[in-house]
Each structure stands twice: as C-alpha cells, then as structure tokens.
Recover the amino acids of this structure.
C-alpha cells in the first residue's frame, strides 16, 4: 500500500527538480575585463567630460517619487531639472525587481537571471556574486579611480571589497527601521566632503525609503519626510560639487502601491534616474524635458512613464563613456543619446561604435567587421540609425537572457509524465471511480489548464474561491437531499470563508483599501482583543478530554502573545496603552534592566525561550508516547495545537485573528464531515487541499516573488544568523495557513489504530494526483511559453512556488512529519 | 465505503434540482417532488427571447453598459413574458391558470424584497462589501427580476411546489460561471463589476426558462 504513495511521490520530486535545473541554468557570462578595441590610442588620450562621480542609490525610488506633483517631495531636484542642470529619466528595471539582481544590472549592465531573485534571499550564497565579472566599478578601479562606498551591504557582497578605498555597509536587518539605517549613511557625508580630493567616485545606497514602502505602502505617512530628507542630502552634496562632477540619483527598482517589489508591474519596474551637473545646463536637454516643468502629472499615472523612458542598463555604457573607461563585457546597455553631445567630438563616434561592437560581442555576432570598415571610410555615421540598431539588439538580448538546458528539461518532464501516469493508476486502484476521484481530477485539470493563462496564475486565489463557493453550495444542497439539513453550519462556514477572503489584498492586479487587516491595524485595541481570544480559544481546544495539555499550551500561548506584542511595539505598530505597560513590566523582569531599550533587548531572548520551550514540550510529548508512558490518542491533537501556536508566532499580528476564524471553520467542517460524509478520508483530504491553497492566498501570499514574507523569518534571530534557520522559518511563515489546514485530517482520521497505514495512503493520494497533474500542465506551459514576455515575471515564479508546495508542503510536512506522528499513534 | 460513495454520488446527480439558499425564506416547508399537478408544457413558447434582445441592447446598443436602464426595460418585458408566455405554459391541476393581476403587482414588491437576500448571497459569493455597493444592489435587482416569473408561480402555488427552484438555480449558475472572466487582464471595459455577471445571469435565466420543462 505504502509503495503506491512513495513511488509516484519520489518520481514526481525527481522530475520537477531535474526540470528546474534545466530551466534555470547558471547564466553564461563572458569572463575577463573589457578594454578599448577601436582606435585605442585616441580613446586613451582623450579627456573625459567628467572626473568625479557621486552616485546616490535610493532603494525603491519609483519614478513618481521624483517627478509627480502630488507624491514628490524632492523640491531641490525639481528646481535643478527645471533649470537644465538635471536631466530626468524613467529607467525600466528588468524583473526580478529585487535589490541584488538589480545591483547586478546596474553595475555589470547585464540582465539578471531569475535565479538571482531567489539568491537575493540567501544573501550569503557566494554563487550569486560578481567578483569575477566585469563591471563599471571594477573598470573604474582598474583605471586608477578611487572609489568609496557607504550604504546597503549588498554591494559589498556583490563586488570585491578591495576595489573600494573606504567602505561601510549597513544592513536592512530591521525592516521597521526608517531612520537609523539612513543616518548611518548620511553621517559619513561631512567627512567625505572634506576629503573630496581623495576620492573620485562616491557611492551611497539608502534603504530607508524601501523600508517605509514595505511597512506602509507607497503612500505611507512617513514618505514625505523621507523625500525631504533625501532631497536635503542631495542638495548638500550638489552644493559642494565642482563643475566636473557628475551626480546620479537613482532607484534600483520601484514598488507597487502596497510597497512590495519583485514582480513586473509598471510601478515595480519604473525607477527614477536623474543626472545632475552644472555642466549639463550648457547642452541641449532631452526632448521630453523641453517645455515641461517638474513636478508634473501624467495623463495616465498608472504607467509611471515620466519624462524620457530608458533601460536601467543604459546607465552602464553611459557612465563608462562619460568617464572614458571600457564598457563592461556583459553589458547590454545602449549609450543614452543625449549624452553623446557631451563627449569630445573626436571620440563621440568611436564611443558609439565601441558600444555597438561590445553589444554585438555579447550577441555573439561577428559580422561587425563589415560595418566597421564602412565607418572608417566615411568617418561620419548616422547616430540615430546606430542607436536604433543597438536598441534592437538590446531587446533581443533581454528577451533571450538565458539558455535553457533542453536535455534536463526533457528528462525532467518525461519523469514527471511517468510519475503522473503511475499516480493516476494508483489513484484509480485505491480510490476507484467515484465522486471523490472525479472531483480531484476536475480540480486538478481546472488548475492545470489555468497554468496556461498568465492572469489566472496571477489571480489564482480567484479560482480557489470559485471552486469553494460552488462546493459549499453543493454541499448544502446535498445535505438537504439526504434529509440532513444543516443550514446554520453551512451558513457559518460560508460567512467564515467570506471573512477570510476579505482579510488581505492578494493577487497581483487590484488592491482594495477596505480589507479587514487594514481596518484592524487602524483599530489596535480590537486587533489585540481578537489576538488574545485567538490564542485562548486555541488552547481551550480539547480541554474536556485532556486538561493537562491546556497548561502546556496555555503557557506557550502566553509566551507567543507577549512576544508578538513586544515585537509590534519594537516595530512601532500601534498597541493599546495598557498592553504596552504589561509588556514593559514583563520585559523589565525578563532583562533585569529599566532603560528605554528594554523592549528591543528582550526581543531575542523571548523568542529563543519560546523556541526552546516548544521544542522541549514536543520532545517530551513524543518521548512519553514512544516509551508508552502516556496514551497516544491525544498526541495528534496536542501536536497540532503546539504547531498552530508556532504558526501564530510566525504570522504578522494582523493575520493572527484569522486563526480564530480557522478554529470556528475547523469545528464546523469537522461536524459536517462527520455527520454528512461519515468522516470520508477523501472528502477530508480534498477539503484540506482546497483550504490550504485558499488560505495561503488569503494570508497575503501570491504567485509572485514580491510577496514572500521575509519579516517573519527573523524572529529570534540575532545578527550573526544562520542562513538555513532563516530559510526554514521563512518557508514556515509563508506556508503558515497551509500547514494549519494540513492538520485538519489529524483531528478526524487516524482514530483507529488498525488501518492507519491504509488511512495515511488514502489521505495522501489526492495530493499526489493533484500535484502531478498540475505539475505536468505547468511544466508544459513553461516549455511552450519559454519565449513569452511573462516567462520570468509570471511563469517562473509560479514554477518556484510549485516546487515549494511539492517539496515543503507535500513531502516534508504532509508526508514526513505527518507520517512520523501517525506512526507513533 | 460503498455507502459513502452513494451519498456523494447523489450530490452530483441531483444537485441541480433542489432548494437553494437564496429562497429558504420563501419556503418554510419541504416540498414534494411529484410532477403533477404542476408542470411546464414542453413548447418553444417558454423560451424568453426578450432576454437575448435585452442582452443585445445592453452589449451593443446601450451607452457604456447602462445597467440601470437595462433593469427598467427588463421589468415590463418580464411582466409581459409572464402574462403571454410563461403563465400560458404552466399547467396547474390539469388546467391553465388565469393571470392574477393583484398577485402580479405583489410579486413586483416581492422581487424588490428578494433583492436583499440576493445581495447577501452575492456578497457571500465574493462581491466587494464596501465599494460598489449600489452596483451590487443593481445586480441583485436584476437577478430577482429575472426570477420574477418563477417567483410569481411560487406565490401562485402557495409556496407548495418545488419545481420553481430550478429557475433560481439556473440564474445562480449563470452568474457563477460568468465570474471566470473577471480575473483576466484584458482590461476591457466590460470587465468592470458587475457587467460580466449581469450578462451571466441573463444567459443563465435564458437557458433556465428554456430547458427547465425538459429536466
């Protein structure tokens, strides 16, 4: 029996991961440093238009923050743009719009591979750095420029540190830190201005604006002040600059209205980019900037295309040319046309051809010789034609950013197909033809087909909701037919589901302001009353049968609550005043100190204590059952309580009351399943499957990288952290509701000891079937649409989520954990 | 095992012809399933062609999907449909019933009242709760006036006949299926709430009124 489960499951895993290795190969890059190739002597001996560069990167600086009439607080930048000393652009930042891949793009000029987005999370991973790759900071260093860097330490992880004369990294450890993280950068400025003779390139990277976005969205109340602060920094630097200094202000990516980034929406990909220099006033400003005054409004603000639109990578050849260093080898940028007029007349054409040749090298085309000879003869080239040609090459290069490994792809897909066929055969043998089998197939095929539509992937939660509404109504109709009418129960279930649906914004298309989590965040006393009730009700579950477990779970519950309150206080969320005082007392007892930082100081010890307590309680419980000191019948119930407390611990405070609704829903569903369906195994696992997916999305999860919850991965983690611990916590935090609903089956099935292996296999077979069929379809969609516009922004993230669901939810939680516990019963 | 399977099977087979949550308020007692004394004649007369015409008007002619004006046109046409088509095909105790004018008017009020539970259902099914509340109510009114002939017959048969709920279910299924187009990112003007669902319930009602006599 067990064989029928394990064989398709293992085959499926192997198939998916072989496929992934072929679909996301490490990118091929040209190694070595670039050097001038055309008219080398002339190029080497020209004097560049600028000799000093100040680069200010403001994380998540969306274009409208710089130019929009309503949003923007950058009044100094506006005045410079209007006077012609500043040239403003909207830079398209290629998805994945996360800091690490974007910094790769900004420094090397290459398109990031999708893998970089994942590796952004695992920052310690060394395979994502570009220490051996050609980049403009490296070229500057090689050509005798002195570089200094202050700001986000991602730069230091990416680039070899010895290219910087002086550097100091800040990290974004606390996302709720809006001020200190930026002050740590700004405090270096006076010293740098004094020593301005000792450096040629100064790079600053500010993180605060991104933090505000993550916390409060793009219209957060903290935004205007942050804009003014950044504007002040820019003004101070600019006023101390000489004429030959070029200053660049840019965002590495944008953000959507909720403040997340990673995806490919207009807001996320439209970063601001401004060049500032007194010299610029003497040249023709970009066409889009003529007769326009900033701040401005757009006809359609949702496009975020202010002034001239360019690719963010275009920055790389532009500054390389302006400072007369070779263009980095892997760059796919195109010289920004307006800057050609700044170049020395003698080298302007050479620089363009250099850029053209370099692009062709990346494109591995060699027929450049033909064109070069033509150029030498005429000495006169039509700039716009060549720029257009380069743009064409650039588009091709961006589109075909990776080479797929077709061997692995086909082997992986073949293995998955075999797994699917085996899974279907096993399912038919175990489940027989009947309504549960038909329903599983119908849902799997529906979800499978939806993988071919990018909007259905983006809005997958709608599909689950669509399925759920139909099933609730059918369930009710069925109950009336068999004469066991349960109007009240079904009504409560429906209301609970509707509340869960209204809890968070999910999906990638629309955001509503009236979602329950927003309302609760505004009314903190209600939120915390609900949170306390949630923990209390959860601890009360099964009180009659087993009062002793109430004590352990209640103790854990109190620890969870005080920790979450303390965490909210430290992160400046609003917490009712009376709770504030209670938590302060608790923290003072805990740390034995009375100073102002008592909340922060207590945070990590509290979390550590919680982790230690919960693991030791689980351990004792399991040992007691194993050594037959305690009856095993309460084991699953108690374990599910402890795990739920852990999940609450890892959830954000505005999501905790959802667990209260889950408890009510769980109670009703267990009653319905027992009365109406006689605890049918397949019905239970189907309900569990549907609710896992549904609640995953309603917790705020989507099929986009942007919504991966990182904040909750750092509970109880001190600064010298272990990447695997964080990874594990991150996966648990993101799948928290799904894990809760996996445990639905624990409370209903596994009552009789006799047939527990059979029950286990029967319970798992619908999941395997579902994952196999959806997987086949999704992988087919990825193969068929591999040159589709959305392959990196929609289909690849979905593929990663699918792998996560299969590996973590299905294998680790569903089979290994549950199998282990069931074997003890 | 076998028993369970049987139960579940029932759910699928009979799902289309049973009470539905919308109308529990109107049916206090459970209803018997005998075909006589009430049935609908199997003729083409029951096909509500005016619904197709209204849809054509709504999609092609009306200015920017005027849901309100569509409703105002729907009401008289539904009354006419009831008088001249639907009621004539209803056989009650082996005879055709004469149209009952006071009841006709009462049912109009009944439909308006029905829109309130219909709205609750629509919101439970996922309609936005705070925003677009008027649009949701318009949709609910459309649904209840599409059910108007069936509602009249419910009243006319003293709430005793289970046949009519098929019509309500047909309208609901139409609305449910039409939701599929909402997540698509085509950005068409007809994807705005509640236009697709209005079209869906009209089609659902069209199919329902046309084929219920046969099932």
């Amino acid at each position: 029996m067990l064989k029928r489960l394990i064989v398709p499951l293992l085959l499926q895993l192997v198939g998916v991961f072989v496929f992934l290795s072929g679909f996301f190969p490490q990118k091929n890059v040209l190694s070595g440093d670039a050097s001038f190739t055309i008219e080398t002597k002339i190029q080497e001996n020209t004097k560049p238009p600028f000799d000093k560069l100040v680069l200010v990167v403001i994380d998540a600086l969306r274009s409208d923050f710089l130019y929009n009439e309503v949003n923007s607080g950058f009044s100094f930048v506006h005045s410079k743009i209007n006077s012609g000393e500043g040239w403003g652009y909207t830079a398209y930042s290629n998805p994945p719009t996360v800091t690490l891949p974007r910094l790769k793009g900004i420094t090397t000029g290459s398109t990031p591979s999708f893998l970089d987005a994942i590796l952004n999370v695992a920052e310690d991973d060394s395979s994502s750095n570009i220490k051996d790759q050609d980049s403009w900071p490296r070229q500057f260093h090689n050509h005798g420029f002195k570089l200094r860097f202050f700001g986000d330490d991602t730069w230091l992880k990416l680039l070899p540190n010895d290219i910087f004369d002086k550097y100091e990294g800040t990290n974004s450890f606390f996302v709720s830190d809006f001020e200190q993280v930026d002050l740590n950068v700004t405090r270096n400025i006076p010293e740098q201005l004094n020593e301005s003779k000792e450096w040629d390139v100064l790079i600053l990277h500010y993180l605060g604006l991104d933090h505000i976005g993550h916390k409060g969205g793009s219209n957060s109340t903290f935004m205007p002040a942050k804009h003014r602060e950044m504007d002040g920094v820019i003004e101070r630097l600019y006023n101390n600059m000489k004429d030959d200094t070029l200053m660049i202000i840019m965002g590495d990516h944008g953000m959507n209205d909720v403040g997340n980034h990673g995806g490919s929406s207009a807001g996320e990909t439209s970063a601001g980019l401004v060049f500032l220099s007194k010299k610029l006033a003497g040249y023709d400003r970009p066409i889009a900037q003529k007769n326009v005054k900033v701040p401005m409004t757009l006809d359609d603000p949702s496009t975020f295309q202010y002034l001239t639109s360019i690719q963010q990578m275009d920055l790389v050849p532009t500054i390389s040319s302006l400072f007369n260093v070779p263009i980095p080898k892997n760059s796919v940028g195109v010289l920004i046309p307006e800057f050609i007029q700044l170049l020395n007349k003698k080298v302007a054409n050479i620089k363009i051809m250099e850029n053209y040749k370099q692009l062709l090298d990346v494109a591995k085309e060699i027929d450049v010789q033909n064109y070069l000879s033509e150029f030498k003869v005429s000495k006169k080239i039509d700039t716009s034609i060549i720029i257009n040609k380069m743009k064409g090459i650039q588009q091709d290069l961006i589109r075909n950013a990776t080479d797929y490994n077709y061997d692995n792809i086909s082997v992986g897909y073949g293995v998955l197909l075999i797994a699917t066929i085996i899974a279907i055969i096993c399912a038919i043998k175990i489940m027989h033809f009947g309504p549960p089998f038909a329903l599983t197939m119908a849902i799997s095929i529906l979800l499978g087909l939806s993988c071919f539509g990018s909007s259905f992937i983006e809005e997958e939660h709608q599909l689950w909701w669509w399925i759920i509404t139909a099933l609730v109504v059918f369930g009710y109709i069925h109950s009336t037919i068999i004469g066991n009418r349960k109007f009240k129960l079904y009504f409560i279930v429906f209301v609970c589901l509707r509340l869960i649906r209204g809890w968070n914004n999910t999906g990638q298309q629309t955001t509503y302001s009236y979602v329950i989590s927003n309302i609760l965040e505004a009314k903190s006393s209600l939120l915390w009353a609900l949170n306390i009730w949630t923990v209390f009700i959860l601890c009360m579950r099964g009180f009659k049968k087993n009062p002793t477990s109430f004590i352990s779970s209640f103790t854990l519950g109190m620890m969870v609550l005080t920790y979450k309150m303390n965490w909210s206080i430290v992160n400046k969320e609003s917490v009712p005043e009376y709770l504030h005082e209670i938590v302060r007392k608790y923290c003072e007892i805990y740390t034995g100190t009375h100073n102002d930082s008592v909340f922060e100081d207590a945070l990590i010890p509290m979390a550590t204590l919680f982790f230690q307590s919960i693991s030791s309680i689980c351990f004792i419980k399991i040992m007691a059952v194993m050594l037959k000191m305690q009856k095993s019948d309460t084991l699953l119930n108690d374990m599910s309580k402890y795990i739920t407390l852990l999940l609450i611990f890892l959830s954000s405070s505005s999501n905790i009351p959802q667990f209260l609704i889950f408890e009510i829903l769980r109670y009703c569903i267990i009653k319905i399943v027992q009365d109406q369906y006689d605890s049918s195994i397949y019905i239970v696992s189907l309900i569990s499957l549907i609710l896992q997916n549904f609640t995953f999305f309603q917790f705020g999860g989507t099929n986009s990288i942007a919504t991966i919850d990182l904040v909750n991965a750092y509970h109880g983690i001190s600064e010298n952290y272990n990447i695997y611990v964080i990874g594990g916590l991150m996966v648990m935090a993101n799948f928290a509701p799904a894990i809760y609903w996996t445990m639905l089956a624990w409370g209903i099935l596994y009552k009789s000891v006799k047939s527990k292996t059979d029950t286990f296999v029967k319970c798992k077979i619908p999941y395997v079937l579902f994952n196999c069929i959806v997987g086949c379809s999704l992988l087919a969609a990825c193969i068929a649409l591999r040159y589709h516009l959305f392959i990196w922004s929609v289909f690849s993230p979905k593929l990663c989520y699918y792998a996560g669901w299969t590996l973590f939810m299905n294998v680790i939680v569903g089979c290994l954990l549950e199998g282990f516990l069931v074997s003890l019963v | 095992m076998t028993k369970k399977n049987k139960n579940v099977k029932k759910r699928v087979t009979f799902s289309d012809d049973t009470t539905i949550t919308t109308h529990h308020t109107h049916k206090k007692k459970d209803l018997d399933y005998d075909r006589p004394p009430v049935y609908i004649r199997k003729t083409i007369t029951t096909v509500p062609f005016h619904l197709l015409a209204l849809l054509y008007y709504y999609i092609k002619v009306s200015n920017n999907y005027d849901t309100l004006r569509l409703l105002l046109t729907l009401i008289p046409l539904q009354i006419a449909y009831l008088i001249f088509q639907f009621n004539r095909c209803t056989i009650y105790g082996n005879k055709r019933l004469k149209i009952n004018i006071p009841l006709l008017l009462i049912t109009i009020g009944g439909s308006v009242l029905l829109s309130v539970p219909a709205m609750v259902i629509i919101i439970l099914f996922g309609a936005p709760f705070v925003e677009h509340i008027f649009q949701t109510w318009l949709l609910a009114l459309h649904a209840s006036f599409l059910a108007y002939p069936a509602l009249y017959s419910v009243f006319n048969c003293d709430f005793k006949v289970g046949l009519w709920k098929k019509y309500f279910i047909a309208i609901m299924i139409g609305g449910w299926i039409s939701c599929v187009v909402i997540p698509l990112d085509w950005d068409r003007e007809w994807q705005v709430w509640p236009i697709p669902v209005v079209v869906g319930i009209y089609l659902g009602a069209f199919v329902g009124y046309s084929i219920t006599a046969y099932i």
Summary: The interface with chain B takes residues 432, 434-436, 438, 453-456, 458-459, 462-463, 465-466, 469-470, 473-478, 480-482, 487, 490-491, 494-495, 498, 501-502, 507, 509, 512, 514, 676-678, 680, 683 of chain A (CB under 8 Å). Chain A has a mean pLDDT of 87.
